[in-house]
Write a structure and sequence with these properties.
Shape: globular
Radius of gyration: 23 Å
Largest sheet: 7 strands, mixed
Number of helices: 15
Strand content: 15-25%
Structural class: alpha/beta
Helix content: 25-40%
Length: about 450
């Protein structure tokens, strides 16, 4: 199991838990690792993109130093989105890609995401080798010298290729539609407006003035209420909010209601099924998707897969089975026919496609989906595994499941990063959810697992 890299990269507070030295070592290893696979004097090519955080420039230069010192060439897209890096890596014959971003986190955090040559998240065995080098376990690697030192290549122009790709996916003009975009003062600020304007929409953009420290601050998909208010005030047809690196998208309908990842999966899954294009008649969700989504999918005659939390696991299920649509409630949506990662701008384009092709508003498209009330509470424990495996705790969970029957569900799972057990219940009312969550937490507490 990886020590530094989680399901979405190596993430931490800049120069505290994720330092410039870490970035240099990551660059050193990747430059050497991929260069040694080359033959006949061919150069290794590593693509780098970054978001608008103040520290992203520091990490970019550290990565470049490491990559070129190992003899590889560093191609710089500069400020761009995570999905654009994945797209350019797989279409421009890059050996791998690196995205510098902490996604929806605050500005003082940052992250390093590794992408393989296919535009997918880096394989676990390669990540473990990177970590072994960071920790000094695998020993030193040689420095490139003389003509073997790597070059730095300005590759900002490749953003145009990515935008052209996005625009090519639109089946109709967006002319006549008033659309709001919340760019979260992040990676999408230079891309989203141009794409929607080029497609003909009357485009209203907010939070597109990054200053290094305002990324995600009171804006974007993590603060969707800002866009909700804006859509209502300006009487827009729809709004789309992205996160810091634009691999997420949440939508807002013309009435100001949130269209989350579950609703997006439902809308597009139904759209594909109606056209006979829903491979396997299945969509892919995570275990955290709302119970109401599954009820609505059952009514629509659509089957579903449930994966662990993380778009990494959603993509694996889709890739292994050929499914076309999947994602998370948070707005990480993967359209497998077109992308290898969640892509916020692509998601917005696809929602526009359904609206235009069916001649319906977002509120009409999502009407059959009834979201169940949900209560989620965390309890800090001394032993996550023991708390979940305890017979009394399991009995309490089973009792709740029996009482809920087909009218809700309970999910108990451990945090991947904290000494926390999460208890979540979805039911017809908030009161029922709270009652059942509290019952289970009280059993965990009474058995002595709660952290003092």
């Amino acid at each position: 199991m990886a020590k530094y890299f989680g399901t979405d990269g190596f993430r931490g507070e800049a120069n505290v838990t994720l330092t410039a030295d870490h970035a240099y070592k990551i660059g050193r290893f990747l430059g050497w690792y991929y260069s040694r696979r080359k033959e006949n004097g061919e150069r290794c090519r590593i693509l780098i993109g970054k978001d608008t955080r103040l520290s992203s420039y520091m990490f970019e230069f550290s990565l470049v130093s490491g990559i070129t010192a190992s003899g590889a060439d560093a191609y710089l897209m500069h400020v761009t989105t995570t999905p654009s890096v994945a797209y350019i890596v797989r279409t421009k014959n890059m050996d791998c890609g690196i995205m510098i971003s902490a996604s929806h986190n605050t500005y003082y955090d940052n992250g390093i995401k590794l992408i393989n040559a296919a535009g997918e998240k880096m394989e676990e065995d390669t990540i473990l080798k990177v970590e072994a080098y960071i920790d000094g376990i695998s020993g030193e690697i040689p420095m490139a010298t003389k003509e073997n030192i790597g070059r730095t290549v300005d590759y900002a122009g490749s953003r145009e290729d990515y935008m052209a790709f996005l625009e090519s996916l639109a089946m109709r003009s967006f002319a006549g539609k008033k659309i709001g975009l919340d760019c979260a003062n992040g990676s999408s600020w230079m891309i989203a407006r141009r794409v929607f304007e080029n497609l003909g929409a009357k485009t209203f953009v907010i939070n597109d003035c990054p200053d290094g420290s305002n990324i995600n601050e009171g804006c974007g998909s993590t603060h969707i209420e800002v866009l909700q208010k804006y859509v209502i005030e300006h009487q827009l047809d729809a709004g789309f909010a992205f996160d810091g690196d634009a691999d997420r998208c949440l939508a807002v309908d013309e009435k100001g209601n949130v269209i989350d990842g579950d609703a997006i999966i439902y809308i597009y899954g139904c759209y594909l099924k109606e056209r006979g294009k829903l491979v396997g008649n299945k969509v892919v969700t995570t275990v955290m998707s709302n119970f109401g989504l599954y009820k609505a999918l059952d009514e629509a005659g659509i089957a579903y897969e449930k994966t662990a939390v993380g778009d990494k696991y959603v993509y694996e299920s889709m890739a292994n089975n050929g499914y076309r649509i999947g994602g998370e409630q948070s707005g990480h949506i993967i359209f497998k026919k077109y992308a290898t990662t969640g892509d916020g701008i692509l998601t917005a384009i696809k929602m526009m496609e359904v609206m235009l092709e069916k001649g319906m508003t977002l509120s009409e498209l999502v009407a059959p989906l009834k979201v169940y009330p949900q209560v989620l509470k965390n309890i800090r424990v001394t032993d996550k595994a023991a708390a979940q495996a305890d017979e009394a705790v399991r009995a309490a969970v089973d009792a709740v499941e029996q009482r809920l029957g087909d009218d809700g569900r309970i999910l108990v799972r451990e945090s991947g990063t904290e000494p926390v057990v999460r208890v979540m219940v979805e039911a017809p009312s908030i009161e029922i959810c709270s009652q059942y969550v509290d019952e289970v937490i009280e059993v965990i507490r009474s058995k002595g697992y709660e952290e003092a």
